[in-house]
Design goal:
By secondary structure, the protein is an alpha/beta fold. Helices cover 30% and strands 22% of the residues. Strand 11 and strand 12 form a beta hairpin. Helix 7 crosses helix 15. The two termini are 34 Å apart. 53% of the residues are buried. Bound molecules: flavin-adenine dinucleotide (FAD). Flavin-adenine dinucleotide binds next to helix 1, strand 2, helix 2, strand 10 and strand 19.
Length: 497
């Protein structure tokens, strides 16, 4: 395959950030080539594995109607969307990252989220409210919670399908099976990209390169080196192709490393899931109803506050907590009161599940768990539940436990009503937080002398400095879109977006 040609901008990768960057570059007059390492049938990166959820600012239903004009009056009347103001988004980012998020990057992510969603909508991207996962039906109305309200039509697969169609409409060329290997750099500026396609190397000349080819989550070697021992044992939730190539090629020419290199977005994930994500299952190996139940490890004991916060604000860090447990697993435990509320992902065929009608039988079915310790733990836990406070999944209900070594802060339901269900989970890594430093207004990569590298831009997972320790659900796609648009504009014009 000959990929050489006259290109203004070459984008490495074909996930959400790359497509947004390519669109922005093309609308600024650039001739754009996207090179994607995966074959066509596996393209789309982690973005394709997502539920397509975008966390964005909206001050009321009018902001939502601006990006979802197909919302009917009946749908609006039957929904309580609330608001998600920029103050709320900032607060969430600061709180979950323990105030480590880079102020300027965070400012662009939050401050440009609404306009970037409008830009995507104008380009032709369709969105829906997340009726299924982010709203509860209360007194006949869908009440949205957790600030996460919008998803791309058709989830992650729909997002990538739409991106592809829009890229085609706007004359953006995408080549598959082409792996970016290194940057062509003369010591002053980036002048192109060396790629490997069909077993041979080629040089592509261009005015600017945008690296948007994901983090290093799919490299066990880099995971262990940067995140620490044990991370080679984690499963990868998404694509097998994000092996840190973009980061490594930028570091090789002097880019500044930035952000939480030992951190990543990692969730509770079916213990027996395959090494990498499976597009036919998508994100359904995740098990996200844990705030309503309890978690125990091999010792039969609870080890974390399952109800510390809404699921959106704990799920991305609890994968790492499970990885640190003996033999890297935990069981999620529910009784009959909660089973009907479990999310759809609990009903898939490929699930590591046990069920029993007595708690004693159940204790012996939990593989790898000390049954007697488990029975003691349940007794202690049940006795500690503050029964007088009503259970309400829609708010942080304060139905907590009292007097335990590790209390549960909200949604503490007793485990006593058969049948009992247990789901075995391990750690599923979604993406890594460490990456390269960029200029927040142009997307240009900064070198370790803190100077911009002419001709090199970045967007998406491989941008460091945004997420630390944790992550508010739906911010990854939003970050890719915001910084993709910024990088695409910068790469095409040399100006700030
Ligand atoms: C199961 C799952 C569910 C998720 N759900 C959500 C969600 O609902 N909302 C949300 O905001 N975030 C979610 N995330 C996080 C989200 O997927 C990422 O933050 C986001 O998709 C990253 O986009 P990206 O474009 O940077 O990377 P990707 O979408 O991963 O794209 C990177 C692309 O680069 C390609 N590539 C890699 N190396 C090379 C190379 N050397 N040359 C050429 N191409 C290369 C890869 O093949 C890939 O196509 C989820 C993640 C997972 C795994």
């Amino acid at each position: 395959m000959n990929v050489a040609g006259k290109w203004d901008v070459v984008v490495v990768g074909a996930g959400n950030a790359a497509f947004c960057a390519a669109q922005a570059a093309a609308e600024n007059g650039a001739k754009v080539l996207m090179v994607e390492r995966a074959p066509k049938e596996l393209m789309g990166g982690n973005s394709r594995f997502t539920a397509g959820a975008f966390r964005c600012v909206y001050d009321g239903v009018d902001d939502l109607k601006a990006i979802m004009p197909d919302l009917t009056k009946d749908e609006v009347d039957r929904s309580d969307f609330g608001t998600y103001t920029s103050d709320q988004f900032y607060d969430d980012m600061f709180r979950v990252t323990q105030y480590r998020t880079d102020g300027e990057l965070c400012d662009r992510l939050v401050g440009r989220s609404r306009d970037t969603m409008r830009w995507l909508h104008k380009k032709g991207m369709k969105f829906d409210p997340i009726w299924g996962r982010q709203a509860y039906l209360i007194d006949g109305k869908f009440k949205f919670w957790g600030g996460l309200t919008v998803e791309s039509k058709g989830g992650g697969p729909g997002l990538i399908e739409q991106h592809l169609k829009l890229a085609e409409q706007n004359g953006i060329e995408v080549r598959y099976g082409v792996r970016g290997i290194s940057l062509i750099y003369d010591g002053k500026m980036v002048k192109g990209l060396k790629v490997k396609a069909n077993g041979s190397y080629e040089d592509i000349e261009c005015k600017s390169v945008i690296i948007a080819c994901g983090g290093f989550e799919s490299s066990p070697e880099m995971r262990t080196r940067y995140m620490g021992p044990g991370w080679e044992l984690a499963k990868v939730r998404g694509t097998s192709y994000n092996t840190g190539d973009g980061i490594n090629m930028a570091l090789a020419i002097g880019a500044s490393s930035y952000g939480n290199w030992s951190g990543g977005h990692a969730v509770q994930w079916d213990y027996n899931a395959p090494e990498f994500g499976d597009l036919s299952v998508g994100d359904n190996f995740q098990k996200h109803s844990y705030p309503w139940g309890i978690l125990v490890n091999a010792t039969g004991r609870r080890f974390v506050d399952e109800g510390a916060d809404f699921r959106n604000y704990t799920y991305a860090k609890y994968g790492a907590v499970v990885l640190r447990q003996p033999n890297n697993f935990a069981w999620q435990i529910f009784d009959n009161k909660i089973i009907p509320m479990l999310r759809a992902e609990y009903r898939i065929k490929r699930v590591s599940k046990v069920t029993a009608n007595t708690i004693e039988e159940f204790a012996h079915k939990l593989e790898g768990v000390d049954p007697q310790a488990f029975l003691d733990e349940i007794k202690k836990y049940n006795a500690a539940v503050k029964q007088g406070v009503p259970f309400n999944p829609n708010i942080k209900d304060g139905r907590c436990t009292v007097g335990l070594d590790i209390n549960k802060s909200n949604w503490a339901n007793t485990i006593e009503e058969p049948p009992f269900e247990g789901y075995q989970v391990g750690c599923g890594l979604s993406f890594t937080f460490g990456g390269v430093r960029i200029d927040p207004d142009s997307g240009q990569v900064i070198d370790s002398d803190m100077n911009p590298i002419p001709g090199l831009y970045a967007a998406g997972e491989l941008v460091g400095g945004i997420f630390y320790f944790n992550y508010p659900g739906g911010s990854g796609l939003m970050s890719g879109a915001v910084f993709g648009k910024i990088a695409g504009t910068g790469a095409a014009t040399g100006r700030n977006a």
